[in-house]
Specification:
With about 350 residues, the protein is an alpha/beta fold. It has helices spanning about 5-10, 40-50, 65-70, 85-95, 115-120, 165-170, 225-235, 245-255, 260-280, 305-315, 335-355, and strands at about 25-30, 80-85, 105, 125-130, 145-150, 175-180, 200-205, 220-225, 285, 295-300, 315, 330-335. Bound molecules: pyridoxal-5'-phosphate.
Amino acid sequence: MSRFWSSIVHTLTPYVAGEQPAMHNLVKLNTNENPYGPSPRALAAIAAETTEALRLYPDPTALKLREAIAKSHGLAANNVFVGNGSDEVLAHVFQALLKHDRPLLFPDVTYSFFPTFCNLYGISFREVPLDDAMAVRISDYRQECGAIVLPNPNAPTGTALPLAEIETLIAEHPDQVVVIDEAYVDFGAESAIALVARYPNLLVTQTFSKSRGLAGLRVGFAIGQPPLIEALNRVKDSFNSYPLDRLAIAGAVAAWEDKEWFEEKLAKVIATRDNLSAALRELQFEVLPSSANLLFARHATLPGAEITAQLRSRAILIRHFPKPRIHDYLRISIGTDDECAKLLSGLADVIAFLER
Ligand SMILES: *Cc1c(COP(=O)(O)O)cnc(C)c1O
């Protein structure tokens, strides 16, 4: 606390990111990074861009990247907004499109940045409980609201809705913006981008951080009809004209174009996830069905906080949220087969220790 702070700073409850400790031999399964890293073509493009031209500002509109993304969806560059990670894109979305007199709706268990943004921008919101299977039930969103934001697959649960249900949600709210946060969509859900041409109220966000292994480059994007994109540009150009630097633009374009690397690594992550899910069930975990690069699971008897702490003391990091409804769940990012094997032996050890 300081008397020098603006009054809003006293009221903020900042998002807490998963830790990035500098520990040796760490098995790091806590922030949903991609164990296989970026396409070698992205690294080559970043190296090639590392020249004296860095003295010049980048293209403020990142047109090359927006065109590459638009083209693969049969859309135009003015359907695409890019930003410094999808967290920044989402921040602009909250400010530009989700602040209305009636409350914004999102699930009670979801990406914890959502209430943080609401707090920052003074947006009123109402949390809609997940059903007993920890899934989103779209009929629960049939209520007065100013807008809706929903990850699909949801975070941190990893469960996905079929596209037909997402479409029903969008069609049932023609006068509200519906934002679908597709940070994990590539790992097994259906994207709503195919609906953008038909629904002026739909905005979809995605990121290069998870499926493209580029969390360190900070690139995310939103796709929607031009009036929604224009709102985002108005906020962005009142905030930071150059959210993507030259290296980020070059690396993201090359990563986007390397479809082979992308598909191959996705298949590996998905196979590892499904094996890990089966192995966790054998260790008496209840595992939610996942369409993401993570599993959300709870043990039949042991508390989530203790399992997490015991794993940490064995240099295995996973994520635990000390929140109502989910405090006994573990969120486990999908690593390599080797990392997941280490997690499983660590877990067997921890369970034996805690059940003593
Ligand atoms: C990881 C994540 C993001 C943000 O990713 P960036 O790294 O900022 O692009 C957004 N939404 C959800 C649900 C996420 O899990």
